[in-house]
Every structure is written in structure tokens, then in C-alpha cells.
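Field log, afternoon session.

UNIT: design team B
ACTIVITY: writing a sequence onto a fixed backbone
BACKBONE:
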């Protein structure tokens, strides 16, 4: 029972995972599309975000995550049983919302705070680097679907561990500069 709930939550959050993980891959596939989200804007002499947060990542991650949800909703619904997640009643745009929240509200929003606290781009900020996409996705999408506080607590812990592990793996592959 617990394993089924675990798998359903991971499956539900797949659009956010894809959105959060896609910017390094998109950077390799589309190297010239690196327009900074902050467009070079500064506040008190410091860049708002820096060069690492691009519209390529935000738009690409949102689109990829949204398409994953469309696959879940319209194609995989008959193959994957998810009693916890009401795919048939969720709107078609829900995955785009979840993905946008993960990448823009979570990742880009966290980077804004990192810059204000003087943490350089790419440098670790534990535990916020590990939970940013989860918090961002939930903040923007909770009004459409809420799985309950227990599921949210579980996602925060599991996603923090998954983020740390995937970041370490990306570092081993040479896609990331820092281990965590």
C-alpha cells in the first residue's frame, strides 16, 4: 500500500521533475538560446539572477513537463493506475502549471533569494536547492489539486533526496559544477 502511494506521488510529480532536470540538457541541445530571465537587470549593484537562469530553461522545462502530463492524462491513463491522482478530472494545462511552478516559482525564485544573500550562481544552498522545485510546483498548483499534508511532507523529503542524488549524478556526468 505504502509503495503504491509512493509510486503514484512520484508519477504525479513527473512534470515537475522533468521541468527541474531539463535546463542542463536544453543548454546542450540549444546552446545559443541563453537569454537571461533577468535580462541583465540589477538591484543595489547586483544581478537579480545571473546568467544561469535563462528563458530557454523556463520555457523549455515548462513545455517538456506539460507534455509529460498530457501523455499521463491522455495516453497513459489506461495503462497506469493512479487512484490517488484524478487525471481524468484535472485540466489539460495542469502539467504546464506544475512544471512552470517547479522551474520559475521554485528554481528561479530561489535563485533570486540566493543572490540577495550573496550566494554565487551554481554554489550550493542546502536545503533550499533540494526543495525549491517541490515548493514552487505546489505553491502554484495547490488550488487545482491537493493530495493532502501527509503526501506533501513525503514529497518534500523524497524530492530533497532525489534532487541531491540527481545533482550528484549530474556532477559525475560533467553537467553540474557542484556535487550538491
Amino acid at each position: 500500500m505504502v509503495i503504491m502511494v509512493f509510486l503514484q506521488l512520484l508519477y504525479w510529480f513527473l512534470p515537475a521533475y522533468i521541468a527541474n532536470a531539463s535546463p542542463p540538457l536544453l543548454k546542450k541541445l540549444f546552446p545559443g538560446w541563453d537569454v537571461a530571465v533577468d535580462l541583465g537587470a540589477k538591484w543595489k549593484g547586483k544581478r537579480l539572477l545571473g546568467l544561469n537562469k535563462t528563458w530557454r530553461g523556463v520555457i523549455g522545462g515548462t513545455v517538456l513537463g506539460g507534455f509529460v502530463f498530457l501523455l499521463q492524462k491522455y495516453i497513459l491513463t489506461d495503462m497506469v493506475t493512479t487512484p490517488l491522482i484524478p487525471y481524468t478530472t484535472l485540466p489539460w494545462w495542469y502539467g504546464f502549471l506544475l512544471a512552470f511552478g517547479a522551474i520559475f516559482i521554485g528554481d528561479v525564485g530561489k535563485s533570486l533569494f540566493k543572490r540577495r544573500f550573496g550566494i554565487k550562481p551554481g554554489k550550493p544552498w542546502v536545503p533550499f536547492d533540494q526543495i525549491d522545485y517541490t515548493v514552487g510546483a505546489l505553491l502554484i498548483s495547490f488550488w487545482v489539486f491537493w493530495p493532502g499534508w501527509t503526501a506533501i511532507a513525503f514529497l518534500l523529503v523524497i524530492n530533497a533526496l532525489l534532487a541531491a542524488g540527481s545533482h550528484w549524478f549530474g556532477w559525475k556526468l560533467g553537467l553540474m559544477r557542484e556535487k550538491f
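LOG NOTE: The chain has one domain: 2-172.
NEXT ACTIVITY: expression trials, pending approval
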